[in-house]
Write a structure and sequence with these properties.
This protein is α/β, with parallel strands linked by helices and about 450 residues long. The chain has one domain (about 5-15, about 40-340): Alkaline Phosphatase, subunit A (3-Layer(aba) Sandwich), CATH 3.40.720. The protein contains twelve helices and 14 strands. It has helices at about 5-15, 65-70, 85-95, 100, 120-125, 170-185, 220-245, 275-280, 305-310, 325-330, 390-410, 425-430, and strands at about 40-45, 75-80, 130, 150, 190-195, 250-255, 260, 270, 280-285, 295-300, 340-345, 350-355, 360-365, 370-375. The strands form three sheets. An eight-stranded mixed β-sheet has the order 4-3-5-1-6-9-2-10, with helices on both faces. It is globular. The chain binds zinc ion. The site of zinc ion has 6 residues, from loops. Zinc ion binds near residues 46, 47, 85, 257 and 258.
């Protein structure tokens, strides 16, 4: 009996027994990957706004390697993050819950172990799981390491350090080493690997021989150079995956946790607002045997978890999560249309909720109650607040927002709330030095 056969049997035998899971819900479709659990490679880039990549229409050549790779991928043109900074955004990806549920709100938050995470689900089903991280919020104290058998946070540099750290090359080197080890072994245990890249995050470092093409005087220029530098090293991993033949059985999920502002709405950096430049993120999924296509419909990073699970039969997304599987898209069907929620609660002046539903986007200042409404079909850049012209739309979206937040809060009651990390005021101020709270 081959290892793979044993593994598939193991899957069938154990899945029903995993706490908090249900395997009783009828699948709406037959999974393409029945009997052959794929490897899963997560490639995420911190602070990468979608519209600064070639594949999303940027006029500069910032992402040639990812663009070329993405030609055979499913490219989501309208993917929304759940927050505009790292900790809540990534907690959402790993749990498929919004911030009102997982409560990773502030620099002092951490994810409680009572939340089931995607790596835990895969690990419990027999996967080997590894991560190489490169952001302070991916240091172990924030709780996002749950479920990783191997969790390398060497580059999740301590908050005492400045941000002028360049890590993409080293993250890729570690990722490539992992792929080579997997390719060299007879062990057919499937794996999840997550490589998180940090370089486009401020400060915007100049990379000799790369940044000059984009200019080095303005922040936006240097940001472009950082993307190009990161793309170069991600390209090495994607090339290695293909060279080793692992791409034939690996689901690759590329995404960012949030975007970045360059005075688009009078602010800078991220974590201070919920406009498009901050919450519209790149999201590209490449599945073996699935043809490339563009998906214009609204999707969310909260959908990543159930989508991945639908590629890993017989695992089934747990009841109660916020995300819905995007698997039907991979079979050429249109996704179910659902609104997207984003929230931030960093401090009083940065407390916002936002809901996007069809052509409308509503942003509510959670402290003052002030609202902004954008017609994102006519005004993609969200420049014209039309809340006064459309009070009925504001009222309707507010209802949707209240419903989503209330549901998320109720779901949160089923989990423990992690206690605060107890960072000192000085440490919290150093977090601000990372470029958060950079509005106005
Ligand atoms: Zn981030």
């Amino acid at each position: 009996m081959s290892v793979r056969t044993i593994l598939v049997l193991f899957f069938a035998a154990t899945t029903l027994a995993v706490a908090g899971w249900t395997a009783t819900r009828e699948r709406p479709f037959e999974p393409r990957y029945a009997g052959s659990p794929p490897n899963v490679l997560f490639v995420s880039v911190d602070t990468l706004r979608a519209d600064h990549m070639g594949i999303y229409g940027y006029g500069r050549n910032t992402s040639p390697a990812i663009d070329a790779w993405a030609k055979d991928g499913v490219v989501f043109d309208n993917a929304q993050a759940s927050a505009s900074w790292t900790l809540p955004g990534l907690a959402t990806v790993l749990t498929s819950y919004y911030s009102s549920t997982h409560r990773c709100w502030t620099f002092n938050s951490r994810l409680d172990p009572s939340f089931p995470t995607l790596p835990e689900m895969l690990r419990d089903a027999g996967y080997d799981t590894m991560a190489v991280t490169s952001h302070v919020f991916l240091a172990r104290r924030y709780g996002l390491q749950q479920g990783f058998v191997h969790f390398d946070d060497e580059f999740a540099h301590p908050i005492e350090d400045p941000t002028e750290v360049v890590t993409s090359e080293m993250v890729s080197d570690k990722g490539i080493r992992f792929l080579e080890q997997k390719a060299a072994t007879d062990d057919e245990t499937p794996w999840l690997a997550w490589l998180h890249y940090f370089d486009p995050h401020g400060a915007y470092v100049v990379h000799e021989g790369i940044s000059e093409e984009f200019g080095v005087t303005s922040e936006r220029d240097r940001y472009a150079g950082e993307i190009r530098y990161t793309d170069l090293h991600i390209g090495r991993v994607l090339d290695k995956l293909a060279e080793l033949g692992l791409d034939e059985n690996t689901l690759v999920v590329f995404f960012s946790d949030h975007g970045e502002e360059f005075q688009d709405h009078g602010g800078a950096r991220h974590g201070h607002a919920l406009y498009r430049e901050l919450v519209r993120v790149p999201m590209i999924i490449k599945a073996p045997g699935v043809a490339g296509r563009r998906v214009p419909e609204l999707v969310r990073t909260v959908d990543i978890l159930p989508t991945v699970l639908d590629f890993v039969p017989p695992l089934i997304p747990p009841e109660g999560i916020e995300g819905r599987s995007l698997f039907p898209i991979f079979e050429g069907r249109a996704p179910e249309q659902l609104p997207a929620l984003a929230e931030i609660r960093l401090e009083e002046r940065t407390s916002f909720d936002c809901v996007i539903d069809g052509r409308w986007k509503l942003i509510v200042n959670a402290m003052s109650g002030e609202v902004e409404l954008y017609d994102v079909e006519a005004d993609a850049l969200e420049k014209n607040d039309v809340s006064e012209q459309h009070p009925e739309v504001v009222a309707e979206l507010k209802q949707t927002m209240v419903r989503l937040i209330r549901r998320a809060q109720e779901r949160g009651e089923g989990f423990n709330k992690a206690s605060d990390l107890g960072l000192s005021q000085t440490q919290l101020e150093q977090m601000e030095g990372l470029g958060y709270l950079g509005g106005d």
